[in-house]
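hey can u check if this looks right to u? its 679 residues, i copy pasted from the old doc so theres a chance i mangled smth
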Amino acid sequence: MSTVSGIQQPIRPLTVEAGFAAWGALIALTFACIVLQHSLPWVVTFPTAWQVPIAAGINVVSDAVVPVIQPLFRSISALLDVPMRGMQACLSWLPWPATMAIVVVLSLKSGGYRLALLSVIALGYMVIAGYWPQSMNTLSLVLLSVPIAVGLGFALGLLGYRFPRFRPGLLAFLDLMQTVPAFAYLIPLLLLFGFGPVVGLIASAIYATPPMVRNTMLGLDRVPSDISEAGLMSGCTRRQQFWHVEVPTALPQILVGFNQSTMAALSMVIVAAIIGGFEDIGWEVLSSMRKAEFGQSILSGLVIALLAILIDRLTLGFAKERPNGPTPIMAWMSWRRLAGIVVVALVAAAAQRLFLPDAWALPSTALREQVGIVNVALTSVVRDYAWFFNGARNVVLYSLLLPLRMGIVGAATPALWGFALTPPMVAVYVALWLAIAGLAMKAYGWQLAVATCMAGLLLFQGFAGFPWPALILGFGLLAYRLAGIGLACFAMLGFGFILVSGLSAPLGQSMYLTMLAVILCLMIGGLLGVWAAHSERVSKILRPICDGLQTVPQFVFLIPALMFFKVGEFTALIAIMLYAIVPPIRYVEHGLRNVRPDVVEAVQQMGATPTQVLMQAKFPLALPVIMLGINQTIMAALSMLAIAALVGTRDLGQQVYIALGKADAGLGIVAGLSIAFLA
């Protein structure tokens, strides 16, 4: 909205003539920059003289402030260390049958027999695989970080609900917290709190806070006005109305926030292990990955996956509203009976520790010790079929990754493609793309023609060599077309911030890797979503796979990719795709399944074929849901950049990881803010 004489006016989009002229000028500018790049290299490579030492300035401020406030934060760290060690000692002291019994009765109360069976399988695997102590250490981290995150999130959500003027700033802060990679804010935490398990606890709590804030505000906002008025008419004070009327009504949504915060805290276990250094399951995954022991990596990664799925189902079961009421076993398992069983389990555990200390000892770690056979087998598979894995990697590398990163002008060399690019070849390329643009304009209008021309220039030059003035102006023009001058200024300032910070090269790497991963995820995941929307059998098969991919922490995706394809950008691409492919599957299926049946029937009665029904009826009606899936796919791909940096990328995520290794707060914050801007 714009303001003229005190009256809000709607944004006036560009007219057809002005839009065509603006995009035509942008294409001409891009073409001119590409032609003149050898005589004017600054149009492609951002000049070093124009860069501003923002990271160095942040480090100067950090060096001055941290020593002053560090004693306070170290005291907080020492205070939190006591309950942390106490929780670890308590869970280690509790015999595994007692822990399993407590979790089983909680599962019966939350989800019934199926969830109880899942809990037995998950906890039994942790015992048999020899990861019980490490799992309990991880659980102690979650059990302490989640209450901190829930309490802080509820307080901030209440603040945003009670004082609407604070909400825009609070939402912007939450967006920043959720888009800045966890590695970036680990650096100031390390400087303030020091190295150890408590830092992992605090990092997990911070990362898990935003979902609770959002769901608290959403739940309180959705309290029907008639319920609030009924509380007031009953004579409730403002405090009574809030705690006895509004909070119980919003409780299901608040419990969803509790579920999401718990999952977020659990997803941080490996990141916390990097700076925590204590014997938990995240440390086991990291250690086995560093030693290339893929068998142990799979075993320990499976523990995290099972723990994540179990906690997700357990907490979501309490948050879920049941229209038909609880099942008989859930109704029988009242809170009083549950508390009684827990007390009996604790008393039995204390008696066993006193009188039969050797009973219920953990089984030997034979499975972990014998998994070396799996390592040998996997190594043999990788060695024997290296031709296949290397071939697949090289095909994608030379046909997709290098052309997008270096462009055709950089990839068409005797060393890579076996031939050099000549002027006649360039002329043929330009003529081909102009012909395609002409056909696009004739069939779909000038907008698609402009997009075709820009895609041709981008493919020719590559992300690494694309002129930065055209990049900034292009995104600014697109933002203005979509949302007006405000978003256009934000986009241009954001890209300008990244360039003047000296991160133009990592920016190009991040953009091309993210774009390729998103395109492939949309193609593969979209097709799977369409298939699942039209087949119940496929939907039932894909549902647990998607659940597993969504609950597995991000680091675990590196294991299979690293195992078969070794270090490199292709490995990073595979890991990003594994994490980002779930949203297009889920949202495409959900959108197509929820298209109004009467509309579909009307189209079918008009004689449309199944393909026409899908393309001309279902897809247009499901487009808002599908667009949300595209948004979530992009966010998931960007969130994996810092994780994928561990296997050899040179993008913004790698800058964050380098900053963490050097404890460089300035570089970490600048790189993290750059990723947040893109997100």
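The first strand starts at residue 2 and ends at 4.
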